[in-house]
Prior knowledge:
The chain has 131 residues and is an alpha/beta fold. It has a single domain (27-130), classed as Rossmann fold (3-Layer(aba) Sandwich). The chain contains four helices and six strands. Strands 3-4-5-6 form a four-stranded parallel beta sheet, sandwiched between helices. A two-stranded antiparallel ribbon has the order 1-2. Helix 2 links the parallel strand 3 (49-51) and strand 4 (75-82). The protein is globular. It starts with a strand and ends with a helix.
Amino acid sequence: MTIFVKEDFVSHAGLDLKWKIECDGLTEDDWECLGLMISEIENRPFSKVVGIPRGGLPLQYAMEKYATGDEKHPILIVDDVYTTGTSFKDFVEENYADQDVICWVAFARNPANQQVNALFQMASSMWKNLK
Length: 131
C-alpha cells in the first residue's frame, strides 16, 4: 500500500485536499519505531495513551509500553496526521477538557499549534510561514 497518495479527498475539518498520508500503509513495526522516536523526544511522564479514533489507534498501541500508569501524570493523546488541529481540539474538548494532556502526532501537514507536538512536520508548510 502506498503511504503518500496523490488524490483528492476531504479532510476531517472539511478541507478539499489534493494529497494525503495514508497511514494504513504503515506496518506495526513502523508504528513501533514511530512510538520509540516519540518516547526518546518526549521527556514528560504520562499515565496512559489514548489514540484519536481511528487514525491514532496504531500509535496508541505502540506508545502504551511507555506509560507510567500513575494517575498523577498527564494523559498522552496521539493521532496519525495533523492538518488543522480540529481532530485534536474536538477530541480533547469532548473527552479530556478538565485534564492535563500531552498531544503528539506522527505527521503534520501544517504547523501544529502549541499544544500538539509533531514528530514529522511537512517542510512546505514551514516555508510558507517563513515568507
